Amino acid sequence: MSTVANSKVNLLGLSRPELEAFVATLGAKPFRARQLMKWMYRKGKSDFATMTDLAKDFRSRLDEVAEIRVPEIVTATASADGTRKWLLKAPGATGAEQAIETVFIPEPGRGTLCISSQVGCPLNCSFCSTAQQGFNRNLSAAEIVGQVWLANRELGADPEGPRVITNVVLMGMGEPLSNYRNVVPAMRVMMDDLGYDLSRRRVTLSTSGLVPQLYRLAEECNVALAVSLHAPNNALRNELVPINRLHPIEELLAACWHYLERQNGRSVTFEYVMLDGVNDRPEHARELARLLKGHDAKVNLIPFNSFPGTSYRRSPEPVIAGFRDQLMRQGVIATIRRTRGDDIDAACGQLKGRVLDRTQVRLGTRRIAVTVQA
Ligand code: SAH
């Protein structure tokens, strides 16, 4: 909770204890924090005046010192398949115009919101469009939770009706574990019963493999885990996911199994992008099966989504299906991710927002000795 000179405290994204501490500074009892959470998250309100069960003088005090501020929408796009994408303002240090992306993917019986955690990404994976943008900054907890708040509003979610957003995945722009200190409180709000009340199986954090933060997460937060593996051996993974040079596959997998044990999780989903002629051969499937067999693991094969300037190509459909079948034959559960929203550049790896690169930090490649913010 921090205030910049002349600015109000943004209540969005504060965890329950933080909000209780804040209302205490105004002389209010902790239950006021719970009331505020209901108004903000369940009812989607941002104007204190509408919060009718709060005393009038408390509301005017709030108006003076606090606000519920969500990111501004730059553009909204809809795909032919029903996928929606929003470009949201995430200004740079000097107010420079930057933007991040949020994607809603409707499916029968569920609605998944894919949210961003950083402006750009420091990880530099060779096949990812976000990586080409460089990295500018972390999103605040308010900006992370604000994506859910906004999407609910834009999708016309009725607080009394069925949920529109049933699942949240941190699979948008950025590496969530390199913004640990804002991502974890934001996920807590998503799972809080006075927040978005999502079960821990319906909030998924996807990481390219920041091993120390994974161990920390295992102690502190219980969510579903997805890991961007993409290669079955270190030589290839070093090329595709350069953070692997810092945290090789064996260490990453050990951290994953530890996470499952500590959090009593069901399984880890391993994402594997299918790149024509690069990581899609039968020997890769065999190697991958050897790594994962006997563990609570699922493989999710992602057909590569193209973007301008890339020289990778998507593996042909029969190759992807053959890869899946081979994994299954060797006792590893595998599925193929259906591509959604690619006509509006909303598919995996296509999110680019608008990033004014500062790139002092490129994890895994340029500056290995960087301290990851935690
Ligand atoms: N940084 C986190 C969160 C991003 S999740 C992570 O790496 O897990 C987005 C997923 O889409 C990741 O698995 C990512 O590796 C994958 N991806 C990136 N570029 C892609 C592309 N061009 N086509 C398909 N999937 C891609």
Task: Give a written overview of the molecule.
The chain has helices spanning 16-25, 30-42, 56-65, 129-132, 141-154, 180-191, 211-220, 234-240, 249-263, 282-292, 317-329, and strands at residues 9-10, 66-67, 73-78, 84-89, 99-107, 110-114, 118-120, 135-138, 167-170, 203-207, 224-228, 268-274, 297-303, 333-336. It has 374 residues and is α/β, with parallel strands linked by helices. The strands form three sheets. The chain has a ten-stranded mixed β-sheet. The protein has a two-stranded parallel sheet with strand order 1-2. It is globular. The two termini are 16 Å apart.
List the keywords:
two-stranded parallel sheet; 374 residues; disordered N terminus; alpha/beta; 32% helix; single chain; disordered C terminus; ten-stranded mixed sheet; binds S-adenosyl-L-homocysteine; globular; 11 helices
Tally the beta strands.
14
N to C succession of SSEs: EHHHEEEEEEHEHEHEHEHHEHEHE
Overall 3D shape: globular
* Helical/strand content category: alpha/beta
Roughly what fraction of the amino acids lie in strands? 15-25%
List of distinct ligands in this structure: S-adenosyl-L-homocysteine
Number of helices: 11
Low-pLDDT stretches are 1-5, 366-374
Mind summarizing the main beta sheet?
A: 10 strands, mixed
Helical coverage, percent range: 25-40%
Oligomer: single chain
Radius of gyration, CA atoms, in whole angstroms: 21 Å
Q: Strand order of the main beta sheet, please?
A: 3-4-5-6-9-10-11-12-13-14
What's the average pLDDT? 92
Query: First CA to last CA: what distance?
Result: 16 Å
